[in-house]
Amino acid sequence: MNSDAVLPCSVPDFGPLPRRLTRSVAIGGVQVGGGAPVVVQSMTNTDTADVASTTKQVAELWRAGSELVRVTVNTVEAAAAVPRIVDKLAMMGIEVPIIGDFHYNGHQLLSAEPACAEALGKYRINPGNVGFGKKKDSQFATLIEFAIKYAKPVRIGANWGSLDQALAAQLMDENANRVEPWDAGRVLREALIRSALDSAARAVELGLPAERIVLSAKVSGVQELIAVYRELASRGDYALHLGLTEAGIGSKGIVASSAALGVLLQEGIGDTIRISLTPEPGQARSNEVIVAQELLQTMGLRAFTPMVTACPGCGRTTSTFFQELAQTVQEHVRAKMPEWKITHPGAENLTLAVMGCVVNGPGESRHANIGISLPGTGEAPSAPVFEDGEKTVTLRGENIAREFVALIDGYVERRYGVTAAGGAA
C-alpha cells in the first residue's frame, strides 16, 4: 500500500458534525431538540413517597446542574407525593421540571391522582410494560389522554431489559420467512426501534402532537447502543434522549457511557442525555450530573464550569502538591459556579491549567486563561503564573494554593464581572 495515500475519513477535521435537526419539545421551561443545546438530566433514587428526602435530592441534583429530574412513580403514595414535592421545590426557588417514570400501572396512578398528572413536567412511558395483551392499547391510551389533557410531553422509552415480547416474537416470525434471515441480535434491535417508533405513531393517532414526544431506545452495550440510535435517528425527526442503561459502577460506567454517547454526539445525534451510573457506596447521586456535564464540555458542545487541564505526573513530579492543587482548583470553581452563573456570566468558559514541571508546564499554562507551572523534582522552588499567555507573577512558599485561587477569583472578577462586561455593578 502506498504510504502517501490519503485514507477516506467520515470524521470532520475539527469538532462534531452539525446537530441532527429534530422537533423542538418544551418541557416546562426547558427546550429539548430543535437545535437547542443538549440537555442534562438525572434521576432520583429515593422513595418518591418520602417527600422530604426526594425534595432534598432533587434540589441537590438541580444545584449540580441537572436541567430535568426524573422520579419513580410506582405507588399511589408516590403519585400523591409528586404535587407536594413540586410545591416544596417552588418554595425553594427551584423550578426544575419533574419527570414521572411509569411502569406497569401508570394508567391507574394518574387516574387515582390527577394532581400528579398536572404537576409533572413530562411522563416517561415504557412501551414494553405499559400493558400486556388486550389491555396494552387501552392502558397506553389512558396515559396519552392524560398527557393531552394537561398539555404534557411524553418520553416513549423502550429498553432492552423490558422489550415488548409480543413485538419481538412477531419480528422473529417475519424474519424466519426472509430469503436471507437477519441474525437474532439485529432482529431484537429492530424490535426495540419499532417499539419506540410504533408507540410514537400511535400516540400521534390518539391526538398527542409530535412536538410533545421524545424517544429513547436504551441498551447496556456500547456498540449496540450506537447501532440502535443511528438507525432510530435515520427514521424520523423526533427528539432523542440518549443513555446507556445500567452503565455500571465507577470508572466502568463512566467509560462505557462516554464511549457510546461520545460517538453519537459527535455524529450530531442526541438532544438530551443521562449518565446512568451505579453510585459507589457513600458517593453523591449528583456525580452522574457532573459526568454528563464534563462529557458535553470536553466535546465542546456546552460549557458548565471552568475546566482544569492538569499534569498526570511522572518521574519528574515526585511531589503530590500539583495533584492537590488541581483538585483544590477544580472544587473551588465548581463551588463558585452557581454564584458566578448569575453574577459573572461567561465564567463557565474559563480555562485553567495546573502543571507539574518545566517540560510542558509553561507552554500548557500559556494556552489557558490562567495557568500555573509548578516546580518538578530538582527544579527551582518557584511557580510562574500565566494569564492569557503572559507571565504575570511567580509564586513561592507555603501559600501557593491560596494565592493561586485568589488570582483566579480576581481574573473572573475583572473579565466576567458585570462592570467588566460594560453594565452597572
Strand content: 15-25%
Largest sheet: 8 strands, parallel, barrel
Could you spell the SSE succession in H and E letters?
EEEHEHEHHEHEHHEHEEHEEHEHEHEEEH
Which word captures the global form?
globular
* Category from helices, strands and their pairing: alpha/beta
Mean pLDDT over all positions? 93
CA radius of gyration: 25 Å
- The separation of the N and C termini measures 65 Å
Point out poorly predicted stretches.
1-9
Total of helices: 13
What's the β-strand tally?
17
Strand order of the largest sheet: 3-4-5-6-7-8-9-11
Q: Please give the share of residues in helix.
A: 40-55%
Task: Describe this protein's structure.
Residues 308-409 form the IspG C-terminal domain. The chain has an 8-stranded parallel β-barrel with strand order 3-4-5-6-7-8-9-11, surrounded by 5 helices. Helix 12 links the parallel strand 14 and strand 15 (370-373). Helix 6 (165-176) crosses helix 7 and helix 7 crosses helix 8. With 425 residues, the chain is an alpha/beta fold. Helices cover 43% and strands 17% of the residues. It is globular. Residues 1-9 have low confidence and may be disordered.
What keyword list fits this structure?
five-stranded mixed beta sheet; 13 helices; disordered N terminus; alpha/beta; 425 residues; single chain
